[in-house]
């Protein structure tokens, strides 16, 4: 069985369905700290800070792979730094120990472009210096090093991607700095104005959910000898600024209106690189993004119109 921890989250909720499509519904166990309103397939309530409960679940379902998608993200994490550190690290230590003790064959650890800081100019290389500016980023850089340690010391096969901001129509983000890039589509489709918490020219690396899912499973399915990076692979989809995504939306929804009111998340965004070099992922295990900004906009609007009353134009 595959265990997904953090299955109620923006990535986790989509990943569960994606994995069930590939491996079969009965082969994927979803878990999170609260039961969702409704669910199909196996869902287990799990507080991942409880190592015994996590290990018991791994044994109960004879788990062979763990995808660890639970964490407090960059913006929310700054409200309570030590709590964020504790939750992000304790849950991961529990995953690492459960995997080691129960011979789990593979672990997926989501890292983030948040591991980079002001020492990187516009483009982050695979081996750029990591000086994260947020507690979330510090925890992700630490998690990458723990992944490498468990791989070297115990042979645990952990694989990791430094996700850019992820844009999805199926799920809402929770507490990130890139959340604006999801909210903007919902407002546009509902015919409402959008107030952006970043400056118009703040370019960030982003990726569409379909490309993120493809990259994740491609990495996990690659032969172990192809995995040359045991901290976290840089992953790039596209880079754009709020004004660029707004312009892309206005090609489809001409009357869409955006205003800008930067808040504390502007400083977080400015500590991150605008571009990511993902040549190692391309070379080692064949990564290729397929979505452009306009292609993503077309699909996001199409999917969200199914969800809301289509707005007359
Ligand atoms: C965040 N969406 O904003 C997450 C992600 C790169 C951004 O880590 O915190």
Describe this entry's structure for a reader.
This protein is of the alpha/beta class and 313 residues long. Helices cover 41% and strands 17% of the residues. The protein contains eleven helices and 14 strands. The protein has helices spanning 10-23, 51-60, 74-77, 81-101, 135-154, 180-189, 209-221, 242-250, 265-270, 279-285, 293-307; strands at 2-5, 28-32, 42-45, 65-68, 106-112, 123-124, 158-163, 165-167, 194-196, 204-208, 233-234, 238-240, 258-260, 275-276. The strands form four sheets. It has a seven-stranded parallel beta sheet, sandwiched between helices. Strands 8-10-12 form a three-stranded mixed beta sheet. A two-stranded parallel sheet has the order 6-14. Helix 1 links the parallel strand 1 and strand 2 (28-32). Helix 6 packs parallel to helix 8 (242-250) and helix 6 crosses helix 11. The model has no long low-confidence stretch (mean pLDDT 97). One of its GO terms (biological process) is L-threonine catabolic process. Pfam families: Epimerase. Belongs to the NAD(P)-dependent epimerase/dehydratase family.
């Amino acid at each position: 069985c595959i265990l997904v921890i953090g299955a109620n989250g923006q990535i986790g909720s989509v990943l569960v369905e994606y994995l069930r499509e590939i491996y079969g519904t009965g082969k994927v166990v979803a878990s999170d700290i609260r039961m969702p309103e409704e669910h199909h397939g196996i869902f287990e309530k799990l507080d991942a800070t409880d190592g015994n409960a996590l290990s018991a679940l791994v044994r109960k379902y004879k788990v062979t792979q763990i995808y660890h998608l639970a964490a407090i993200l960059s913006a929310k994490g700054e409200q309570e730094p030590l709590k964020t550190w504790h939750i992000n690290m304790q849950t991961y230590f529990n995953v690492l120990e459960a995997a080691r003790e129960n011979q789990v064959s593979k672990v997926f650890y989501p890292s983030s472009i948040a591991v980079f800081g002001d020492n990187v100019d516009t483009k982050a290389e695979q081996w750029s210096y990591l000086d994260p500016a947020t507690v979330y980023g510090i925890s992700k850089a630490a998690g990458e090093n723990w992944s490498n340690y468990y791989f070297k010391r115990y042979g645990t096969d952990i694989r990791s991607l430094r996700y850019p901001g992820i844009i999805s129509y199926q799920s809402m983000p929770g507490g990130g700095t890139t959340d604006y890039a999801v909210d903007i589509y919902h407002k546009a489709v509902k015919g409402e104005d959008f107030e952006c918490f970043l400056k118009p020219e703040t370019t960030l690396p982003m990726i569409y959910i379909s490309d993120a899912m493809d990259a994740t499973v491609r990495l996990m399915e690659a032969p172990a000898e192809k995995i040359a990076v045991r901290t976290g692979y840089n992953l790039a989809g596209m880079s754009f600024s709020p004004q660029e995504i707004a312009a892309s939306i206005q090609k489809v929804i001409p009357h869409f209106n955006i205003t800008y009111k930067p808040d504390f998340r502007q400083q977080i965004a400015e500590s991150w690189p605008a571009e990511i070099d993902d040549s190692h992922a391309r070379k080692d295990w064949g990564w290729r993004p397929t979505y452009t900004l306009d292609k993503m906009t077309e699909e996001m609007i199409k999917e969200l119109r199914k969800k809301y009353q289509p707005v007359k134009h």
